[in-house]
Design a protein that fits this description.
- GO terms for molecular function: 7S RNA binding; GTP binding; GTPase activity.
- It is an enzyme of class 3 (hydrolase).
- It catalyses: GTP + H2O = GDP + phosphate + H(+).
- This protein is of the alpha/beta class.
- It is built from 21 helices and 8 strands.
- Helix 3 packs across helix 4, helix 9 runs parallel beside helix 10 and helix 14 packs antiparallel against helix 17.
- The longest helix has 21 residues.
- It binds guanosine-5'-diphosphate.
- The site of guanosine-5'-diphosphate (GDP) has 20 residues, from helix 5.
Length: 438
């Protein structure tokens, strides 16, 4: 994520080397402008950004630090429309959110992703099927909610979304849900009928916030439709979907200031975990090539079950980390999503080679091999890695159809993972990890 945009900034930053050098500043600004336009950032936004950076740098006295500060400040102003938000909980539960968007924008998928995000935070979520326009929408929600184990409220007896919303909210209040996500109807394009329906649903739901899901692949159209939704029914936040498919990514930079509504989340794939909170300060760090250690830590904590983690830490400290734990760890990594979204958060890793960034845990041959190897072990061997002598390794290799060399390599990997884990499981583990990341 943000690869092209980050390149735009880091390339410009490289041009600034000397103190008091107006020529270097001009070169850096030209470079920045060219790259941002290439990344499809709206031209008015680019113009404003360049002007601001130039003014601020000159006011502070030309130099690298001044340029970096000016860039940081300007980016913050550009992205921070209405404060650093993420998800905002209402003072009294349930927090009611209306999910809106055009057909095909990714609204239904995003509803599932948001529910997953909230569930990972320990919240009890109810999804309401109020998109009664698209025939397959309710069925799609059934599948999603089953997969993520979140309750779905639906009412096949009525075709009126207002009735569904009213009874869903009564139900939510009686069962004490933390959050209610209402999936509303979409259309291929904005029309009066849709707006009227949304207005009626809005009245019935009295939502705490209305989110608009915009397809980033539609570029500036996403900005235009979001603006229309804002004018007609009022929206409190935009979620930009399909950002993984948007190689240029410029729309994310201008959207908040263009629509004057904060960008709150970004969708980065079709899986339920592929949603990231958009917090301007963190994003600015990433755009400037400084990574996002906080975001990474959050991602890890979301995925890891706390009780399980404590148990594992004890085992690791006692040197009792075994193959079952190893397999479990690999499964947890899988839940974090593709490597590319993780890499972008590690300082200096934003520009990693594509092959590494695209590493997919779920479909990785290595993970399959490890699984096969562990499956060929006896329960005792899984619990006690020290049992693995040569003849046992030969047997395992045969059992899973791999070479003994592979088995040795994977066992070595396992032992290294154990050592690393032990190192980071102590009191200062997280600090060590952070210092390693810069
Ligand atoms: P709706 O009509 O707005 O409810 O759209 P859907 O939720 O059915 O999504 C339309 C298509 O976009 C589906 O195939 C989704 O899997 C896909 N989609 C949604 N969000 C993302 C995303 O962030 N990345 C990618 N690659 N695909 C997405």
């Amino acid at each position: 994520m943000f690869g092209t945009l980050t390149d735009s900034f880091t390339n410009a930053i490289k041009k600034i080397r000397f103190h008091d050098d107006a020529k270097a500043l001009s070169k850096a600004l030209t470079e920045l402008k060219k790259n941002l336009l290439k990344a499809d950032v709206n031209h008015k936004v680019v113009k404003e950004l360049i002007q601001q950076v130039e003014l601020k740098t000159k006011a502070a006295g030309i130099g690298k630090d001044q340029f970096l500060n000016a860039l940081r400040e300007t980016l913050n102003e550009l992205l921070d429309v209405g404060g650093n938000k993420g998800f905002v909980f209402a003072p009294n539960p349930p927090t009611v959110i209306l999910m809106t968007g055009l057909q095909g924008s990714g609204k239904t998928t995003t509803t599932g992703k948001l529910a997953t995000y909230l569930k990972n935070k320990g919240k009890k979520v109810l999804i309401v099927a109020a998109d009664l326009q698209r025939l397959a929408a309710v069925e799609q929600l059934r599948q999603i909610t089953q997969q993520i184990e979140v309750e779905l409220y639906e009412d096949e007896a009525t075709k009126n979304p207002v009735d569904v919303v009213k009874s869903a909210l009564e139900y939510a209040n009686s069962k004490i849900f933390d959050v209610v996500l209402i999936d509303t109807a979409g259309r291929l394009a904005i029309d009066d009928e849709l707006m009227q329906e949304l207005e009626n649903v809005k009245k019935a739901a009295n939502p705490d916030e209305i989110f608009y899901v915009a397809d980033s692949l539609t570029g500036q159209d996403a900005v235009r439709t979001a603006t229309t939704f804002k004018e007609k029914i009022g929206i409190d936040g935009v979620i930009l979907s399909k950002y993984d498919g948007d190689a240029k990514g410029g729309v994310a930079l201008g959207l908040s200031s263009q629509v004057q509504v904060p960008l709150r989340f970004i969708g980065l794939g079709e899986k339920m975990e592929d949603l990231e909170v958009f917090l301007p300060e963190r994003i600015v760090n990433r755009l400037m090539g400084f990574g996002d250690v906080e975001g990474l830590a959050e991602k890890v904590t979301n995925v890891i079950d706390e009780k399980q983690a404590k148990k594992l830490t004890k085992k690791i400290q006692k040197g009792k980390f075994n193959f079952n734990d190893f397999l479990e760890q690999m499964e947890q990594m899988k839940k974090m999503g593709s490597m590319s979204s993780i890499m972008g958060m590690i300082p200096g890793m934003g520009n990693m080679s594509k092959a590494i960034k695209d590493f997919d845990f779920e479909n990785s041959g290595e993970l399959k091999n490890i699984k096969a190897m562990v499956s060929s072990m006896t329960p005792k061997e899984r619990e006690d890695p020290d049992l693995l002598n040569n003849s046992r390794k030969q047997r395992i290799a045969k059992g899973c159809g791999l070479d003994i060399v592979d088995i040795n390599r994977m066992i070595k990997q396992f032992k290294n993972a154990g050592k690393m884990a032990k190192k980071f499981s102590g009191k200062n583990g997280m600090k060590q990890l952070q210092s390693m990341m810069g």
